[in-house]
Amino acid sequence: MNERRFEVAWVPSIPDQFVTWGSDLRLYQVVDGEHSSRGLEKEQIGVDRYAELVNCVTEPHYIKSVSIWRGEGVRLAVGQATGRVSLISLSDDLNLEFASEKEFNPKQSRPCSALAWHPTQYTLLAAGYEKVRTEDGIVVWDLSQSQLTEKPLHETGHGDHCTSLSWAHTQPLLVAGLNTKTVKIFDSRNGMKTVNQTQTRATYGLSVDPGSDYRISGYSESSVVIWDTRNFEKPIITLNSPHQVTKVSWCPSRPGLLASSVKDSGSILLRDIMSWAVSQEDGEASVTERTIQPPGSQIGNIADFAWHPSRENTLLAMGTLSRFTEWTVADRLTLNFSARHSLIWSSGASNLLRFEPTEFSNSESRSSDEPRNYLEICDIGLVMQSRAKAGYSGDTKLTDLSNFKLGSELDTVWTWVLQSGGNAFADLISPNTRNAKFLGVRTLLYSSAETSQAKLSNWTGLDSAKPIRTYHSTERELILKLCGWDKKKMGKKNLNEISRNAAIAVFNLDMKAAIEILKSGCTGSKGVDSGLSSNLSMVCVAVSGYSSEGSKLWKEVVANSLPLLPDPALKSLFSFLTSEDESYSDVLSGNNLSFLDRVAFASRFLSDKLLLEYLEKERSKLLLSGSLEGLILSRTHQESIEVLQAYVDRSGDIQTASLISLKILPPEILRSAGVVSWIDNYRQMLDQWNMFGVRSELDISLSRSDPSWETQLQGWI
Question: Are 446 and 436 in contact (CB under 8 A)?
Answer without folding.
Answer: no
